[in-house]
Specification:
The protein is α/β, with parallel strands linked by helices and 177 residues long. The chain has a single domain (3-170), classed as Rossmann fold (3-Layer(aba) Sandwich). The protein has seven helices and five strands; from the N terminus they run E-H-E-E-H-E-H-H-H-E-H-H.
């Protein structure tokens, strides 16, 4: 069974995968196939945990490839903290793609925080809609990572060092400046 950590970005996905590296019976990676296209984009090995915020743009293909046969985690962080982190990164990555590619530049007066909140609302709605009929799923809040990770560990039948995995959430990985 594969595990997909669906998220908006800026919500702890790197920390989540660092924690998963302490699981011995699954491989784990962060954004490991993001440069690929076609069927190769979602050709993950069996018993693999993948966190990639761009999967929120691939949900139809993800459903076609894995459907009800995968376990899905919806990773979130408080809306305000996530949006603030995105606003600090407004000039590149997903935020630049949102403003320039999706909104075709947007409208005058749209601030970085407003755009970040709009992006979050769209991505979160897409993920929630995708997960509505998936039998193997869980909500995971970064603010309660230790408890939620123990539940995740149990639900996927993980083996390895749970204490070391939980300790990863005490470190900030890929933090915004």
């Amino acid at each position: 069974m594969n595990v997909f950590v669906l998220n908006s970005g800026r919500c702890g996905s790197t920390s989540f995968i660092e924690a998963c590296r302490h699981i011995s019976n699954y491989s784990a990676a962060h954004e490991s196939r993001l440069h690929l296209i076609g069927s190769a984009r979602l050709a993950y090995p069996d018993r693999h945990i993948e966190a990639d915020n761009r999967l929120a743009w691939q949900l139809g293909r993800l459903d076609r490839a894995y459907g009800e046969g995968a376990f899905y985690v919806h990773l979130t962080r408080t809306r305000a903290a996530t949006a603030a982190s995105f606003a600090r990164r407004a000039g590149f990555g997903i935020m630049r793609a949102w403003r320039e590619g999706v909104l075709l530049g947007g409208e005058p007066g749209q601030g970085d925080l407003d755009l970040a909140l709009d992006y979050l609302d769209c991505v979160e709605a897409n993920i929630e809609h995708f997960l509505r009929d998936k039998p193997h799923r869980m909500e995971f809040r970064l603010e309660r990572a230790a408890a939620d990770f123990a539940e995740f560990w149990r639900r996927i039948g993980a083996e390895g060092d749970l204490a070391a995995a939980q300790a990863e959430f005490a470190h900030r990985h890929n933090a915004s400046r």
